[in-house]
Amino acid sequence: MENKKFMPEPFRIKMVEYMSILDKESRKEAIKKAGYNTFLVRSDECYIDLLTDSGTNAMSDRQWAGLMLGDEAYAGSRNFYHLEQVVREYFGFKYIVPTHQGRGAENILSSLLIKPGDYVPGNMYFTTTRFHQERNGATFRDIIIDEAHDPSIDLPFKGNVDLNKLQALIDEVGAERIPYICLAVTVNLAGGQPVSMANIRAVSELAHKHGIKVMYDATRCVENAYFIKEREEGYQDKTIKEIVHEMFSYGDGCTMSGKKDCLTNIGGFLCMNDHDLYVRATGMVVQFEGMPSYGGLAGRDMEAMAIGITESVQYEYISHRVNQIRYLGEKLEAAGVPMVKPYGGHAIFIDARAFLDHLTQDEFPAQALSAALYEFSGVRTMERGIISAGRDVVTGKNHYPKLETIRLTIPRRVYTYAHLDFVADAVIELYKRRRDISGLKWKYEPKVLRFFTGTFETINPELIKGF
Ligand code: PLI
Q: Do the domains at 24-53+315-458 and 61-312 have one common CATH topology?
């Protein structure tokens, strides 16, 4: 029985949180009031909330118990030393600087390593990560394999770096203008796609040959390790902990959003092996986050993060997590819903361009689909397409990403297979009515990270005709 394809949740429920179920008219009003931006819908107006897996994790009884062990001293909290010990043991980096969340670490790393005119290559952009790189004067260069931009290509390691692209950049601008490579494991915007250990090793070799640092975006590193165990020759008998440790052994440091794979609701950190960089990072953290022994976090949050890391590498936890995504993906695929393949580690990405093939990219198909799914069912998702991609900082023109998707992001340990059945039914029903969905146009376009707070109007009189 323990070999069933979809084993039930590997936890039982000790505390419950009731969800809101709004009627159709209230949902229509809510999404209109939010300017057709699901980021601006109130949490109480959502039924199943798949906006993000960031900070939405359910903590375990052990983590809640850990909160009571919070040492809220301004300096030298014992929870910091616990976190430091766990990160050293599991990630293998020498130094750790806690931050309030991932972008706090990105801010410090980018400010310390980038000079104006530099280039930062990465395996696809992430919104906040690229923002900090550009804010410090760097140009981001996408060096992911071409296949990652095609939703239909099914490859085991679609997050891999194209080494020729990396070499070409080094030849073009010179290694001295590339302070580091940002290597994301997994790649969020490619659909949660993993990087193979062989590719990590090869990137590290090439980068280090030219004196370029390898800094991981470790946000979803446990999910990456799970895919390596499942898909890469030679790793089947290794533990997730061993694989995570090996992945990081090839690099120089990382930024981490603890709100994802550390199984907490807040927190992050920056790691490095270089002592000088660590000293400079502590100089920055005191300016922007707090003492190097808390970095914007309460002691209890650091404790929860330390415990969360140890739980995240448990096989029962991570295999269930990835299988939940797969379960939802298989249901949608059976109904012909177009999706990014293969299914990633944290979310299903629906191909909004194919779903709403009557709209052009300038009519914001992903934004419209995300709004329509909310209106139709109360399920909240996130646009990951032209709105998230923003404008070129130099020309001011829109980026036109090949991937125009909505992300159905599964929070960790929060929803059950029964919830996913509801989500699948909602998407499949909406797919039958896809031609009724209107495109959108801007009402207010913010200058920075516009997807968070931008608002829209429908092009047709109704978002979903006749609904
Ligand atoms: O949200 P932060 O500041 O803790 O982390 C920023 C961040 C960095 N890298 C990656 C790959 C992320 O996915 C990420 C945040 N992601 C969010 C908020 C998400 O919804 O995917």
A: no
CA distance 254 to 200: 14
Nearest to 219 by CA among 181, 183, 249, 190: 183
Q: Which residue, by CA, sits nearest to atom 8 of ligand 1? A: 102
Cis peptide before 342 (omega within 30 of 0): yes
Domain ranges across the chain: 24-53+315-458, 61-312
Measured distance CA(114)–CA(70) in Å, rounded: 35
The whole-model pTM stands at 0.96
pLDDT at residue 1 greater than cutoff 90: no
Class of domain 61-312: alpha beta
CA proximity to 213, closest of 271, 279, 145, 127: 271
Report how far ligand 1's centroid is from the alpha carbon of 409 (Å): 12
The catalytic residues are: 74, 126-127, 217, 260, 384, 451
Cα(419) to ligand 1 centroid in Å equals 24
Residues 371-391: what's their mean pLDDT? Answer: 96
What superfamily in CATH does domain 24-53+315-458 come from?
Answer: Aspartate Aminotransferase, domain 1 (3.90.1150.10)
DSSP state of 122: E
Residues contacting residue 239 through CB under 8 Å, at least 6 positions apart: 313, 315
Q: How far apart are CA 196 and CA 193, in angstroms?
A: 10
Q: Ligand 1 in contact with 223 (CB < 6 A)? A: no
Residues 238-270 pLDDT 10s: 999 999 999 999 999 999 999 999 999 999 999
Helix (H, G, I), strand (E, B) or coil at 1: coil
Terminal CA-CA length for the chain: 44
